[in-house]
Design goal:
This protein is mostly helical. It has helices at about 10-60, 65-80, 85-120, 125-155, 160-185, 190-215, 225-260, 260-275, 280-295, 300-330, 330-340, 345-370, 375-425, 435-460, 465-485, 490-500.
Length: about 500
């Protein structure tokens, strides 16, 4: 019997919640253990330790997007009801990533001596030890690349419960293994060996779950050579897009360092780091939606558009509220976080808060277009904006400094959203997004009243921390009340109440 995927709102909400919890828990554990690890290893060895994972991160790009390409092709097969083709896609993807992983890992091993002795400024007394851990890390890189193909199949089946069942304990172990080894008088090589063993065990468990998810009766070894060019084509375009997006993410900071001062980079990076921390929710949502878009694009176009519209509304509301909160309390947040010097970053944080909402929306449009198969269009847009962004940011930074950089970031993201929307319309993926004049006027007036009341209360109180303690709950409560009555539909309210009851 053909295997199909039953997509519904509760499943997507559950998987997003699982991803969110899986990201937050390891961060909390790492926040506790990192100070001890830094003290135990010392600054030099901890620098080597972080450098290893940075290099693995960069080399992981060389998987050529095969993990996400696998998720897309399997999701499309599920959407069409062609489950019999899934084992061939899955096995082909695993063997491709295994072969690619061996090449990349041996390449890293071959260049380890050059990296340690000529590229990185490693102390002479740490050179041999650093080379040892780099060789071990190359094995970890191989495991990471193969794991991407396995998780791609699980993501396509919306089995984020299985992914996180393995991933959360693994991430927590990554945070606790270093301090345990240091407590037992072990060193950096011992830490890396145990982490690689841990990753190997994680790969073994994922392989077992991967085999269980494959369609019943079809768990035999089978390949489809014809699918390889398709996987490499999508993955290659995705890799090019990711590289362009990575450069766009950091271009303002690089230009600030070149045109202004390194100190100015700090005053721009601090609010940017604060803003980036809020992406934990979108980054939990996008991996869930990508295979869902792929499946619905080949099975139910009406549901595809309805899903896109509903999630877009939730994203804009939630991210908009977070942005407004940061705008209102920007000065207080920065002063409490980094001291009086945070005053210099207030306008930067306010501009970036608006840009953050637009950035998340553009990310959402990009995921939608990628999931529906238009990766070339997404990549072309990213490359075009890379060409536009550098001179545009250069001009604004020259005139207005770090505030100009924040303005450039925000304006460019607004332009990207507009281009993505026009692209989706031209491809007949969306009907026009319309909001009635009366509804828009109600939303604007309501939020203006809430913002004005919050700012007035904060100004009247004026004394830290009471100004925040009193005004922040007023803002949160009033926006939740307003959102419930004026933004959510009856169907939205029903889904929220059902989710709360399950919790």
């Amino acid at each position: 019997m053909p295997q199909t995927l039953k997509l519904h709102g509760r499943l997507l909400v559950k998987n997003t919640s699982l991803n969110f919890g899986a990201k937050v828990l390891p961060l909390v554990v790492m926040g506790v253990t990192i100070p001890y690890v830094i003290e135990g290893l010392g600054a030099a060895r901890y620098g080597v330790f972080t450098l290893i994972w940075a290099v693995i991160g960069y080399f992981s790009v060389l998987d050529l997007g095969l993990g996400k390409a696998t998720a897309k092709k399997v999701a499309e097969a599920l959407g069409r009801g062609e489950s019999a083709s899934i084992p061939a896609i899955a096995w082909t993807a695993v063997l491709l990533t295994l072969g690619l992983g061996l090449i990349v890992s041996f390449t890293l091993m071959a260049f380890t001596s050059l990296l340690v002795n000529n590229v990185f400024q490693v102390n002479a007394n740490l050179s041999e030890e650093t080379q040892q851990v780099f060789y071990l890390a190359a094995v970890g890189l191989l495991i990471a690349l193969v794991k991407s193909a396995l998780t791609g199949v699980l993501e396509a089946h919306q089995r984020f419960d299985l992914i996180n069942l393995v991933g959360v304990p693994s991430s927590v172990l990554s945070a606790v293994i270093p301090p345990i080894v240091l407590y037992a008088d072990g060193g950096l090589p011992a830490i890396v060996i145990l982490l690689v063993i841990k990753n190997g065990f994680e790969l073994f468990v994922l392989s077992f779950l991967w085999l269980k998810v494959l369609p019943s009766g079809d768990r035999f070894f089978t390949l489809d050579v014809k699918i390889s060019p398709v996987l490499f084509s999508f993955g290659g375009w995705l890799t090019l897009h990711n590289v362009a997006s990575y450069v766009l993410h950091y271009v303002e900071r690089l230009l600030i360092g070149a045109l202004l001062t390194v100190t100015a980079v700090t005053y721009y990076s601090v609010p940017f780091t604060l803003i980036s921390a809020l992406t934990v929710f979108p980054s939990s949502l996008m991996p869930v939606l990508f295979p869902a878009f792929s499946a619905l694009h080949h099975s139910d176009v009406t549901r595809l558009e309805n899903l896109f519209r509903r999630v877009l509304k939730y994203l804009v509301v939630l991210m908009g509220l977070a942005a407004m909160f940061l705008m209102i309390f920007s000065e207080v947040i920065l002063v409490l976080w980094i001291g009086a010097g945070g005053i210099r970053s207030v306008y930067v944080l306010q501009f970036l808060a608006a840009g953050y909402v637009l950035s998340v929306v553009s990310w959402y449009f990009s995921t939608f277009l990628q999931g529906t198969g238009y990766i070339k269009a997404v990549t072309a847009i990213a490359l075009a904006f890379l060409v536009f962004q550098v001179p545009f940011s250069w001009a604004l930074i020259t005139v207005w400094g770090i505030e100009g950089a924040a303005l450039a970031f925000t304006f460019s993201r607004a332009l990207v959203v507009l281009v993505f929307y026009c692209t989706a319309r031209r491809l007949n993926l969306l009907r026009p997004l319309r909001v009635s004049t009366g509804k828009l006027a109600t939303l604007i007036c309501g939020f203006l009243i809430i913002i004005s009341a919050t700012v007035l209360l904060k100004t009247v109180v004026g004394i830290l921390p009471w100004s925040v303690i009193l005004s922040a709950p007023v803002f949160i409560a009033s926006t939740l009340l307003f959102g419930w009555h004026c933004i959510l539909t009856h169907e939205d309210k029903h889904m929220v109440l059902q989710s709360v009851k399950r919790v």
